[in-house]
Write a structure and sequence with these properties.
Elements: H1 2-37, E1 46-47, E2 69-73, H2 84-92, E3 96-98, H3 110-124, E4 129-134, H4 136-147, E5 154-160, H5 176-179, H6 186-193, E6 201-208, E7 222-229, H7 238-248, E8 256-259
Parallel strand pairs: 2-3, 2-4, 4-5, 5-6, 6-7, 7-8
Antiparallel strand pairs: 1-3
Helix pairs in contact: 3-4
């Protein structure tokens, strides 16, 4: 009986994962189209808070104020508006949200992307910001935390689906920007050696991520795995919203590992 149940469960799980992957790519396509339609590709935008500091979901005291900035850094081939659903939620929670359309579709190398982001944040007078980043954006965010310490641009980061350990199959990718995520790439190696800021980073991964797998693990950071299938759709998951809310009301990222 156990064997029969096992053989029945496995195909169902495979179908569920396959369906989740299809939904994941559908979500990515929707966000790409919506970003273009809303003009979030080339327009520089700084979004003011729309809710009370800390948001209605906060219980008890909070250290957040309306002056706290949240900087969104999307992943590769993702325009600034790709993370708009999250941006709107953050505004409702009382944050000024900075997006970086100057990054275009985020096809530059990680160091070049960090240079562009740092220059814009300096222009805006951003200091000790909280970064919420997706995929490649988390690598850019960590570089901002390590190579621009004199500017004090970023204090903490929540990285979502970021391949801190590299993506195994990226060396076979069809484009040069995608091939830069393979394990052992000099930039990833340099970032991995810098452990000091990892305690201020929370790395969130999906239980099933068809693009980066479990390479979101970050030594010395807090690692969270959510019961989600997909590299993109995780951005809209209720589970992630809970993690974001908790992260924004915790002054330190903390360390350790947690499975969702």
């Amino acid at each position: 009986m156990d064997t029969a149940m096992g053989t029945t469960t496995a195909p169902r799980e495979a179908l569920a994962v396959a369906g989740g992957v299809v939904l994941d790519w559908s979500y990515a396509l929707w966000r790409q189209v919506a970003s273009v339609a809303q003009g979030r590709v080339t327009t520089t935008t700084v979004h003011p808070p729309q809710g009370v500091p800390g948001g209605a979901s906060v219980t008890g005291s909070s250290s957040l104020t309306a002056r706290d900035d949240v900087v969104l850094i999307p992943g590769i081939y993702e325009p600034a508006g790709f993370m708009d659903p999250l941006r709107r939620r953050l505004q409702e929670w009382g944050h000024r949200v900075v997006v970086l359309p100057e990054l275009g579709y985020n096809r530059r190398s990680i160091p070049e992307t960090a240079d562009v982001a740092a220059a814009r944040l300096r222009e805006l007078g951003v200091k000790d910001a909280v970064v919420i980043a997706h995929s490649k954006g988390g690598l850019v965010g960590k570089l901002l935390m390590t190579a621009y310490t004199q500017d004090a641009l970023v204090a903490r980061m929540l990285a979502i689906g970021t391949p801190f350990e590299g993506a195994r199959y990226s060396r076979y990718a069809p484009t040069r920007p995608l091939r830069s995520f393979y394990p052992g790439h000099p930039v990833l190696g340099s970032l991995a050696k810098n452990l000091k800021v990892n305690a201020n980073i929370v790395s969130v991964g999906a239980r099933v991520d068809p693009l980066v797998g479990r390479s979101t693990q970050l030594e010395g950071g807090r690692n969270i795995v959510l019961p989600v299938t997909g590299h993109f759709r995780i951005l809209a998951s209720p589970e992630l919203m809970t993690v974001v809310d908790d992260f924004l009301h915790d002054e330190v990222g903390g360390s350790g590992e947690q499975a969702g």
